[in-house]
């Protein structure tokens, strides 16, 4: 509806124009209400997907943590086995049947070498074993921890403490080192127990 140029709108014309505007507004409102409903439905769908994705991510995080824990334990076991093998040197392997001790306090230590005669120096084989004996012999009256010896042998290398403990335990079994314990019994130290020489 339009006015003739220069004409003055009549009340009826204004009423009809306002009614037309009301219909236009009603149409816009209905259209936007429909659009808002669709957007709300889309938002709810996205919220559901976000919740599902969050749950799946959390499950993946937990699974990764477990896998990392298993991998760390496996690597530690490999390092410990490598250190234990290193303490035996590179000589020929000999198979021995050793019965499990029933009483660790009463059972004698397993000897890696023939027992030396009284007064004779114990022969130490293997470069790591000889290096460890040199460290402990540097201050024979001192009680050394595995961590202290490990740092002198390997610096801050990962797994050094564990490998060195296996090495020192092996030397203790050869009667080259003596084990001593802290007052609370929680810490183990090693001290020179006999004269020795490199094999």
Separation of termini? 116 Å
Radius of gyration: 42 Å
Structural class: mainly alpha
Amount of beta strand:
5-15%
N-to-C series of helices and strands: HEHHHEEE
Query: How would the global form be characterised?
Result: rod-shaped
The level of helicity is 55-70%
Low-confidence stretches: 90-98, 100-117
Major pleated sheet: 2 strands, parallel
Could you give the order of strands across the largest sheet? Answer: 1-4
How many β strands by DSSP?
A: 4
Query: Please, how many helices?
Result: 4
Mean pLDDT level: 80
Blueprint (SSEs and pairs):
Blueprint: H1 11-87, E1 122-124, H2 127-137, H3 146-154, H4 160-173, E2 177-181, E3 188-192, E4 196-198
Parallel strand pairs: 1-4
Antiparallel strand pairs: 2-3
Helix pairs in contact: 1-4, 2-3, 2-4, 3-4
């Amino acid at each position: 509806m339009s006015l003739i140029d220069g004409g003055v709108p009549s009340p009826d014309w204004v009423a009809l124009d306002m009614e037309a505007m009301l219909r236009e507004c009603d149409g816009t409102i209905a259209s936007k209400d429909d659009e808002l409903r669709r957007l709300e439905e889309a938002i709810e769908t996205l919220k559901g997907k976000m919740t599902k994705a969050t749950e799946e991510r959390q499950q993946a995080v937990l699974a990764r943590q477990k896998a990392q824990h298993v991998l760390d334990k496996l690597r530690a076991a490999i390092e410990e086995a490598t250190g234990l093998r290193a303490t035996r040197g590179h000589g020929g392997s000999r198979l021995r049947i050793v019965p499990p001790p029933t009483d660790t306090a009463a059972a004698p230590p397993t000897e890696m070498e023939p027992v030396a005669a009284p007064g004779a120096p114990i022969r130490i084989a293997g470069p790591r074993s000889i290096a460890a004996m040199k460290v402990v012999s540097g201050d024979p009256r001192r009680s050394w921890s595995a961590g202290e010896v490990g740092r002198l042998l390997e610096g801050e290398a990962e797994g050094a403490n564990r490998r060195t403990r296996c090495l020192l335990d092996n030397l203790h079994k050869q009667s080259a080192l003596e084990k001593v314990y802290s007052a609370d019994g929680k810490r183990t130290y090693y001290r020179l127990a006999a004269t020795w020489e490199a094999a």
